[in-house]
Amino acid sequence: MKTPFVTLEQLQEITQKYPTPFHIYDEKGIRENARKLNKAFEWNKGFKEYFAVKATPNPYIINILKEEGCGVDCSSLTELMLAEALGYSGEGIMFSSNATPPEEFIKATELNSIINLDDYTHIDFLDKIVGIPETICCRFNPGGVFKTANGIMDNPGDAKYGFTKEQLIDGFIRLKEMGAKTFGIHSFLASNTASNEYYPALAAILFELAVELKEKTGVDIKFINLSGGVGIPYKPDEMENDIMEIGEGVRKAYEQILVPAGMGDVAIFTELGRYMLAPFGHLVATAVHEKHIYKEYIGLDACAVNLMRPAMYGAYHHITVMGKENEPYDHKYDITGSLCENNDKFAIDRMLPKIDIGDFVVIHDTGAHGFSMGYNYNGKLRSSELLLKEDGAVQLIRRAETPKDYFITFDFSDILKDAQ
Fold first, then answer.
1. 40-88 pLDDT per residue, tens
2. Most buried by CB count within 10 Å: which residue of 117, 267, 291, 356?
3. What are φ and ψ of residue 411, in 5° steps?
4. Do 193 and 330 belong to one domain?
5. Are 13 and 140 part of one and the same domain?
6. Domains: count for the chain
């Protein structure tokens, strides 16, 4: 079973000031995990983690990661603005976007970010807008189906991202002619992998590609970004990835492929979101209704606007009924929110202890792609975010939205003046 990082007693105290629903994050767990990642790749002098801002775009959380030596991976104008406000610039920012508007390339250039091009046509697009920078990265898509010894991981051939190999070779030649001096390679082939083989297998593909690109284009490849894809065990019985073993697997591929090719100074970057933060966030809600018809339902004061992964993907998130961890799991429930959509369910046919009105329900592994994927359907308002600090104190790091926030984009008009 999964154990929450907060206790019932802590929640009873927290909710005296901050009512549910809310997302809460574990500072101690975040820091320890970041240090473990850096330890796993300390063999590479240039190693840097570029945290995927889209996973958890909260400045308090990102500042924790910044203190642990992490850069940021941004994919939009507002994420770049957030990074700038936190003091990031230059090689501290990797800008990876797709179907990129001009203003985003302009802002990335102003910040001297490392620009990671998603498509061959973006070369001329970037050149026309701001010119080609001296350091440039390109995203690779090998196509087809990506497999390891554990079977099929994902299907890159269906993904909208990246250059083909032929485009990458030609693109590097063109970029060099246009003034680029140092190059990087980026690729993402599978999501949320529960395998210590994924990163080493991806690394071997990119290392071999780097050697081929150097031979065919003569460019100076300075870094290889392994992107994300290292998963977490959402279910209690799933295997937890061993980041030390993963780092060692990448090291072996590095020494077997890059070092003999005279490329032993290439830096390794990662771009992890889920692995960095998901286990260190909970969505905390209260049971507010029960319903007995053809099935048994428990209605929470949270809904899919607070965590849309179950509704969007059918994703499993473990649930703990606080204070009842040792009681029999002998009740079958659908755990729902209040949206006018039948997929607004955090769990379906889930065996849990008997839930009473007023019980606190902790939904696990929401630290990444949880709050950040929220929305305002049905006029629902996004919740607050809290930080459980290392000393046990709780800090508000984002207030809950109010109706005024919901109506704010009508401030140009008097039509809803009474609602504002």
1. 999 999 999 999 999 999 999 999 999 999 999 999 999 999 999 999 9
2. 117
3. -70, -10
4. no
5. no
6. 2
